[in-house]
Every structure is written in C-alpha cells, then in structure tokens.
Design brief:
CATH architecture of the domain at 6-186: Alpha-Beta Complex
Strand order of the largest sheet: 1-2-3-5-7-10
Number of strands: 10
Strand content: 15-25%
CATH superfamily of the domain at 6-186: 2-enoyl-CoA Hydratase, Chain A, domain 1
Helix content: 40-55%
Structural class: alpha/beta
Bound molecules: coenzyme A
CATH topology of the domain at 6-186: 2-enoyl-CoA Hydratase, Chain A, domain 1
Radius of gyration: 17 Å
CATH class of the domain at 6-186: Alpha Beta
Largest sheet: 6 strands, mixed
Distance between the termini: 46 Å
Shape: globular
Length: 259
C-alpha cells in the first residue's frame, strides 16, 4: 500500500509500518493519524498477515509526538476532533485481534509514547526515550496518555511523568514495566519479527482471545478516555497553550500564568 507519511511493507506474513517523517522526528500530523488508521484496517483485513510492527523512520525518533506546528493554531473544536481521531485509531490498534508490536527506535514522546502504549508489546532500542511532555506546552495528553500510562507503570510513576514532563530512558522504562525488552538498535526489527513469527505458529483463535481478554482487564477505566478528549479540547482555549506552543516553535522556555 502507498501512503504519504508511512511505509507499509509486508514480508513473510509480517507487516512493518514505518512512520516516515524523519525531518520532523516522525511527528504525527492529522494526515499521518488517518493513514495509520487505514493501514491498521488493511492489516486486519489481510488474512495472510499475522502480525504488525510499528516503528519510526531513522535512528533518532520513534515518534516525537503530535505535530506541534500543525496544532498550534487549532481551536478547541479542532482539538477535540484531533483527540477523537487519535483515540479511534489507537483503540483500533489496541483492540486488534492480531498482535501489534511497537519497535521503539528512539524518542517516543507525547503521541509517540501513546502510540507505543496502544500496541500489545513494546520492544525498545538502547537509545529509546519515553515521555509525555505535553505539560511543557501548557496542555495535556490527548491520545490516551493519561489513562494508558497509569495502566502500564502505575499511579505514582505515571503522575510524576505526566506532571514533570520528564523522560524515562530505556532501562528505566523496562524497570517500570513500560517495555518488555531492550535490544541493540540493529537487532530491533529482527527481534520483533522473531516474536511475531513465534506467535504466528499459535492458534489464531487463542491469540485473538488473549488479546481481547488482556484488554478486558481495563474495561472499567474507559470513562477516562472521554474525559481526556474534552479536557484536551478545553486546553486549546487558554493563554498557557498559546504560550507553550509558541515557546516550543520559537525554541525558548515557556512562561505560564495559569490563564
Ligand atoms: N511536532 C512538530 N515538529 C517537531 C516535533 C513535534 N512534536 N518534534 C520535533 N519536531 C521538529 C522540530 O521542530 C525540528 O524541526 P526544524 O528542523 O524545522 O526546526 C525537527 O523536528 C528536529 O527537532 P529538534 O528539536 O531540532 O531535535 P532535538 O534533537 O534538538 O530534540 C526532541 C528532539 C524530540 C527532544 C525535541 O524535538 C522535542 O522536544 N520535540 C517535541 C516533543 C513534544 O513536546 N511532544 C509532544 C507533543 S504533544
């Protein structure tokens, strides 16, 4: 399949989806989110593909977040639509009946960390960094981060990360339970392929049931996703949002006032 911002490659029954905007640290603009949705749907519909790897182009970034330049001028209404679209696509990944592995090859920040967390398994290279730096822009995560980070690493660590915007390195992410393995960058994709090849030999029915049931464990929390979407939209009506994104784009430190 051909995409503007993605590479979709299938080999030996495994699809590798590469977010391909290397000059923008693979930041997710709206078109990329929509393309990921289309790619995941194509993957689900193709019976010959048994598993998917999601990774970022280049050696520096998995995905450095939503595209700040794009959303810097968004209204609360546009922000709400942006969050809804992201949630729909990331829920589709999480609820997929075939395994999806995030091969985290560098920065996984904001929407990148949220994308990785919507995958079923996360394998990282040694240079991977995880964070939800939205707070530095005067906003909050809008693609599930406030909910999934708590699930993955627990209340105390998640709250500290969300409030400080600090990053975890690969070793800390593994220790926190956010990823299952750290490998050398050159071995990252092969390791993911090996895992998916092993799973492909199991009963697809049992695989689908396990994926459904591990997600089922979290059903009770779904109300948080809806609240996150509306609170994310509200952020776009504040002076702090305008200050936060302008500061990033002008490469300076933000001065927040609470308005
Ligand atoms: N959205 C839009 N553009 C982004 C981006 C994002 N989330 N992250 C990086 N970029 C762009 C930069 O603006 C820069 O573009 P330019 O060359 O046109 O100036 C380019 O990608 C390279 O990034 P740069 O900041 O110069 O690289 P770095 O190595 O100094 O820092 C990061 C890398 C990832 C730490 C830094 O880019 C960063 O903090 N990104 C934003 C992370 C973030 O806040 N994400 C959450 C968004 S909700």
């Amino acid at each position: 399949m051909e995409f503007q911002n993605l590479l979709y490659e299938v080999e030996a029954g495994i699809c590798t989806l590469t977010i391909n905007r290397p000059d923008k640290m693979n930041a997710l603009n709206q078109e990329t989110i929509s393309e990921i949705g289309q790619a995941v749907q194509a993957f689900e519909e193709d019976e010959s593909i048994k598993g998917m790897i999601i990774t970022g182009s280049g050696i520096k970034a998995f995905v450095a977040g939503a595209d700040i330049a794009e959303f810097s001028s968004f209204s609360p209404g546009q922000a709400e639509k942006m969050a809804q679209n992201g949630h729909r696509v990331f829920n589709e990944i999480e609820n997929c009946f075939k395994p999806v592995i995030a091969a985290v090859n560098g920065f996984a920040l904001g929407g990148g960390c949220e994308l990785a967390m919507s995958c079923h398994i996360r394998i990282a290279s040694e240079n991977a960094r995880f964070g939800q730096p939205e707070i530095n822009l005067g906003i909050i995560p809008g693609y599930g981060g406030t909910q999934r980070l708590v699930r993955h690493i627990g209340y105390a660590r998640a709250t500290e990360m969300l409030l400080t915007g600090d990053m975890l390195n690969a070793a800390d992410a593994k220790e926190a339970g956010l990823i299952s393995r750290i490998v050398m960058q050159e071995e990252l994709l092969n390791t993911c392929r090996e895992i998916l090849t092993k799973i492909a030999q199991k009963s697809p029915l049992a695989v689908a049931q396990i994926l459904k049931l591990v997600n089922r464990y979290y059903d009770a929390e779904q109300g948080g996703f809806e609240t996150e979407i509306s609170e994310f939209a509200d952020c776009f009506d504040t002076e702090d949002f305008k200050e936060g994104v302008s500061a990033f784009l002008e490469k300076r430190k933000a001065q927040f006032t609470g308005r």
